């Protein structure tokens, strides 16, 4: 710092108390007690509210949600800490998320605008139809839109597990039906015998027919 201080004049920039310790920390031109410096600058976990520990190389390592910028200890990804099924934020220790019937958890912010009833989502469906109609893409078919539980969508998921791990999850499906017949390709003639009869599937469709739209219930409007 290039200066000489009276002991009682050399004070911590955070607590304004004298620094008598042999070791202290600096930020810019300001001195700090090591404990005050840690409290001021060392990041805390947004989940457990503890200081984020250093890794084996002595570096502070943490995870962060790319949108919410929620910082948390790497260990919380494996210790069963729940995530909101909508925004994917980790559940802080001092607050509790709402447990849905199908095992998912919802944070209070997402719960505030969550759609829980099939009838409640119909006006949203009409808004979407009007949006497409404004783009000259009118949806002629009247497709049922239904809110369903997680189990109703699980068949479309590969390797999804119940619990709190951070895994991809299907949140909606469009159901459709189709018919397929076998059509004949040109066979080979060998003397008076037809050889190598080959068939291939042919899909019979007049247009894209959607049977229903299924959406996971409990997601924010």
From TrEMBL:
Stored SUPFAM superfamilies: Glucocorticoid receptor-like (DNA-binding domain)
Keyword flag Zinc: yes
Transmembrane segments: none
GO MF terms held by the record: metal ion binding
PROSITE patterns, per the entry: LIM_DOMAIN_2
Pfam families (UniProt xref): DA1-like, LIM
Family matches, as Gene3D superfamilies: Cysteine Rich Protein
Entry annotated with the keyword Zinc: yes
UniProt keyword list: Metal-binding, Receptor, Zinc
InterPro entries tied to this protein: DA1-like, DA1-like_dom, Znf_LIM
Domain of life: Eukaryota
UniProt cross-references to PANTHER family, sorted A to Z: PROTEIN DA1-RELATED 1, PROTEIN DA1-RELATED 2
Protein name according to UniProt: Ubiquitin receptor1
The organism of origin for this protein: Zea mays (Maize)
């Amino acid at each position: 710092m290039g200066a000489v201080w009276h002991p009682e004049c050399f004070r911590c920039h955070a607590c304004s108390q004298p620094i008598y310790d042999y070791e202290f920390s600096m930020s810019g031109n300001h001195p700090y007690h090591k404990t005050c410096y840690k409290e001021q600058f060392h990041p805390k976990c947004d989940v457990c509210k503890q200081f984020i520990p250093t890794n084996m190389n002595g570096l502070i390592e943490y995870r962060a949600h790319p949108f919410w910028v929620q910082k948390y200890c790497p260990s919380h990804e494996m210790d069963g800490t729940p995530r909101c099924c909508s925004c994917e934020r980790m559940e802080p220790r001092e607050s509790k998320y709402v447990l849905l019937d199908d095992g998912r958890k919802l944070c209070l912010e997402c719960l505030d605008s969550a759609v829980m009833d099939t009838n409640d989502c119909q006006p949203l469906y009409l808004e979407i139809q009007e949006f497409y109609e404004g783009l000259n893409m009118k949806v002629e078919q009247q497709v049922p839109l239904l809110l369903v539980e997680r189990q109703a969508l699980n068949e479309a998921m590969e390797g999804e597990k119940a619990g709190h791990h951070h895994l991809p999850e299907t949140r909606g499906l469009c159901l459709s039906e189709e018919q397929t017949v076998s059509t004949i390709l040109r066979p080979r003639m060998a003397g008076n015998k037809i050889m190598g009869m080959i068939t291939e599937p042919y899909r019979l469709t007049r247009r894209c027919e959607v049977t229903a739209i299924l959406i996971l219930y409990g997601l924010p409007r």
